[in-house]
Amino acid sequence: MIKVLHLSDIHLGSGFSHGRINPETGLNTRLEDFVKTLSFCIDRALKEPVDLVLFGGDAFPDATPLPVVQEAFAAQFRRLADANIPTVLLVGNHDQHSQGNGGASLCIYRTLAVPGFIVGDKLELHTITTQKGQIQVITLPWLTRSTLLTRPETEGLSLEQINYLLIEKLNPALEGEIRKLDPHLPTILLGHLMVDRATLGAERLLAVGKGFTVPLSILSRPEFEYVALGHVHKHQNLNKDNNPPIIYPGSIERVDFSEEKEEKGFVLVEIEKGKVNWEFCPLSVRPFCTLEVNVSEQTDPETAILNTLAKKDINDAVVRLIYHIRSEQLDLINTATLQEALSSAHSYTIRPELVSQLARPRLPELGVGTHLDPIEALKTYLNNRDDLKDIESDLLDAAQKLLNNDNTHEDELEDIENHSPKNQLTLL
Ligand SMILES: [Mn+2]
């Protein structure tokens, strides 16, 4: 069987705000973290050794990475070229220039003709010769309107209509590549895209407001042994039936706090015509830790925060401490004491959030635990507002009318909810 390592969403050079400058190297520690994790992936590819490496896109935060970042990426992938392991670098949305075609940051590998390296910046079939035989890879980079549509075709159309048109164009374009396939060779689709679980036909509705998404049914084809994806940072298999597995390996490092609870890793695949095994391989990456505590009712808020801190293992973690506090308590907190308590963290931020004074009821009758119907509540309020005495009866009339109409409004709301598409994935 042919062994493949599938990794994605490296985002090398992002998240610098969560690191600090390493005085020995002059580099941001988060760059060093990302490079270390990437080198683990490459180590594994060499140690197996695998016959092919597939990168699912988003190498850097944008198409013009700093030279030091670009070089760190190249130094890792060069190890694959040195070991004669064929590698496909797919172009993700972060690798594309906002103007023009292609992924400038990755196309340099094609320009330099790095042996065994393929840059996937078009929908295209590649037949790759590996140590264990041939394999077919169809590359499907991040699609934009300029990839499949011409300017006159999109003139005057809404974003929603353009997305619909893109799907209509993608289907036959992909079909064209599928017809070129040699039926005797194993095949992988490598795509950087957002998948919709919806079945074909509902795209028009589902495309609203969330950019271009590809229906799962377009990817779930019997011609593919494996569908290797990139773009979504949380690892998942979108096809529980596993025929074919449709896999996001996820990002290799935590890019921000939204990934705090996600396991990070890559995927090892063994493949031959009609057969595939895959396994998620976790990476040991730097922990992120959010500590959120409400001390607004505490007499000693500082001790309360320190107690919360003591319960968590924050060693070498990227920590954010958020505490909710009343403004008159602020003097009870010594920031230096908190900084001392956080000093074993890799990096930290401290964010006090003021509990809104407006939220505290000024009328005891309207406090928590008291139940009044809306009209009684309004009357209580108006009793305390002498300035509104003149229009008191008008206000009460208007309120009564609103309350009587309540049912109609609820129906309308329900109607809107029923028609709003539910998105199961986060766009990245
Ligand atoms: Mn992406």
TrEMBL record:
The record, for SUPFAM superfamilies, names: Metallo-dependent phosphatases (SSF56300)
Q: Name one Pfam family in it.
A: Metallophos
* GO molecular function per UniProt: 3'-5' exonuclease activity; endonuclease activity
Q: Which InterPro entries match?
A: Calcineurin-like_PHP, DNA_Repair-Maintenance_Comp, Metallo-depent_PP-like, Mre11_N, SbcD
Keyword flag Hydrolase: yes
Q: Which family does it belong to?
A: Belongs to the SbcD family.
Function per UniProt = SbcCD cleaves DNA hairpin structures. These structures can inhibit DNA replication and are intermediates in certain DNA recombination reactions. The complex acts as a 3'->5' double strand exonuclease that can open hairpins. It also has a 5' single-strand endonuclease activity.
* Subunit structure, as described in the record: Heterodimer of SbcC and SbcD.
Q: Under what name is this protein listed? A: Nuclease SbcCD subunit D
Q: Which gene encodes it?
A: sbcD
